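INTERNAL TRANSFER SHEET
From: sequence group
To: structure group
Subject: Alpha-1,4 glucan phosphorylase

Please process the attached sequence and return the structure record in the designated field. Keep the field labels unchanged so the import script can parse them.
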Amino acid sequence: MVKQSDQVCVVKGWQEGPVIDESTLKDDLTRHFYYTLGRDKVGESQHYLYHALALTIRDRLVARCRETNQQIKQEKRRKTAYLSLEFLMGRALGNAVLNLDLDEQVSSALQEYCTTIETIEDAEHDAGLGNGGLGRLAACFLDSCASLALPVIGYGLRYEYGMFNQSIKDGNQIEQPDNWLREGHPWELSAPEHAKRVKFGGYVQSYTDKFGREHRQWMGSQDVLAVPYDVPVPGYKNNIVNTLRLWKSEATDEFNLTEFNAGSYSEAVAQKNLAEQITMVLYPNDSSENGKELRLRQQYFLSSASIQDVVDQWLSQHGESFSDFADFHAFQLNDTHPSIAVAELMRILIDDYELDWNDAWQITTKTMAYTNHTLLPEALEKWSVSLFSKLLPRILEIVYEINARFLAQVAQQWPGDVEKQRALSLIEEGDEPQIRMAYLAIVGSYSVNGVAALHTELLKAGLFKEFYALWPDKFNNKTNGVTPRRWLAHCNPVLSELIGEKIGHDWVKNFSKISDLRRFYDDKSFHEQWQNAKRENKQRLVDLVKARCDIDFDVSMMFDVQVKRIHEYKRQLLNILHVIHLYDRIRRGDTQGLVPRCVLLGGKAAPGYYMAKKIIKLINNVAEVINKDPQAAPYLRVAFLPNYNVTAMEVICPATDLSEQVSTAGKEASGTGNMKFMMNGALTIGTLDGANIEIRDAVGADNFFLFGAQAHEIDDIKSRYNPEHLISQNSDLKNVMQLLESGHFNLFEPCLFDDITNAIKSPHDPWLVAHDFESYVAAQKEVDKAYADRTYWTQMSILNTAASGLFSSDRTISQYSEDIWHLEPLNISETDLTTAKS
Ligand code: Z15
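Return from structure group:
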């Protein structure tokens, strides 16, 4: 570990020289290309030019980042640490160019190299450090925090391998490792001088200090080093640059000492692997848990390193008293994944700084805040007590103590009710006792929030109802949002330009302004411009589908899109049943009123999720049969886009006409893809689930295609569910099932889809696919009718974009700040920058 010097010596160059002189971007690019990277030809690969441009822009971020941190420190600002195992950042270049307003300078500099930003951009790998919604939400939140000038630091893990790359072979998903750092990551700056030690294993010992006080001490641990890598997070045209601090695990030098002394030097060095494994790979499960030891190590590693980092900064700025620590800090826990942070903060305060339990608990429960993202039971984390005891013995003791004190409170609220105590205990009893991480998070936090109105209501009435009875004021809703910078301004320049012409460009910063678009709802020439923009965006997607799938989409057809993780509750299956139904109609010559469609699906399945992988195979087989049938070609084309990721979505959502949000009601906590599509003028076909409900309320029921059972009806429907009867009664569904069961889509692979057809026919199908089929098909008919009237559709499309103001993550983050974090915005002026040199 590098020791930091106590003496601060300010480097002269950046004290007196000019601040980054924006006019030299061109020179900086050349300097980085020639000298930093040592290149003199652009060559076939654009990679070095991308790298040089990224470094050039990073220079401009560094000065602003330093200034942001200095203001936080000097003004002793209250700040928030956003703790998340996932940050699905995607590409950084285009976003930085937009937020720093460097578009013109970059274009002109690149002209010298005979290229454009669009070309260069393609050399950047996605930072795929997340699975799906939860990870992308964290990334949108960082953009909004910086753009609102809020002092928020993200803490995450620097996975060597992010989300796997998906390819499709014979219709099946193949996973390939994503070695995203291979060609270097120009955005990050490592700070080894701020490395932390994280303990694992060992045992706990008591000792008595000279005042006769009892202490517990975590001994004999094998420590792992956490080295921070800082990624700059630029705000939109406000000179704020926040930090995303990603921890990399490394072996400590003494890690191998015993082996070394035993003479096996090489074996000892090879042991490094164990420590370095921790941040090797992201677990690719979205909304499901797998209980692997390495995953628990990741969670504790993140929690411990991040809390130590905050505490160390506190000590250097405020000294050893923690009495007003809570006035200056909030920790937002992104799901239960980092919820061990509750126990870790307690451990540090008690064991390292000798606070007594009550003081430490006061501080902890005034700083921790927990966001829940799911009601699915399989996603609710539990860790076995025995694993905890082996890996984190001191943390287990603290969890037991938290539980003992909590259960005393439960006994007070419900006297004599032993069943209540059993039900609410942080420890689930059984053959293999388990720690309920959500309960730990709730008990240890001052705020518990859901991510959409319905989701929060269901949490309060169901999953967490006793906790809600105990602490009603802890519970609150924060409906998710997405950043309008990446998800409109950056990904849809054509539409953004058009919107800007009509209502000005203020909407990028102040997204509630987007509602001004409503004024043009009836403007015929605006309709034409709106349609032209959509057509241009559709052509981009046509090119992508051609390149990736070798399937011909056609811009004159309706683009019907469902892209998200593959999961039974999201019901990609329902979508594909509708596709089969359309195909069946075409084959029967029943094409009256049928609007030609291109149906696109995409998404990754967790590698161990059998049914999700079957669904991918089904989609691909159905697509193949339909696409090679000349009778279908004028009406229907189907593609499964491999390797759906953030960058693909930037092409997909601007091109979409119809957004499929068809989860079983009550299962999708919020959804955020739904918001990206809406912003870009797509209409939604969806259930009353998650944020769909709020989307429909905002745009008006007439501009949304609703179908399906509602959340409050589900239990009743399940109690008398008889899908075989539904199939026999509905000739459309009957035909679809017959086609499927006849082997029409698996001629050479008998029985391939039996598990799928059986799931649909099962009276225990939790997702009620057969139940919602009829109303789904009816809603799709309404879609066709609406799309056939171009003016009507265009009006609804404009209204969707105009009503999307609520779904900006700026709104969400303002609410987090108002209600939970209580932060004040920073302010960095141009004059601040001209004194802070780079
Ligand atoms: C995840 O992506 C989500 C929830 C989870 O519990 C996990 Cl482990 C991963 C998603 C929700 O499914 C989605 O509805 C929500 O919009 C998103 O989190 C962000 O809140």
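Handover comment: Residues 47-74 form the longest helix (28 residues). Residues 131-134, 137, 286-287, 335, 373-374, 379, 451, 480, 668-672, 690 surround Z15 (CB under 6 Å).
Transfer complete.
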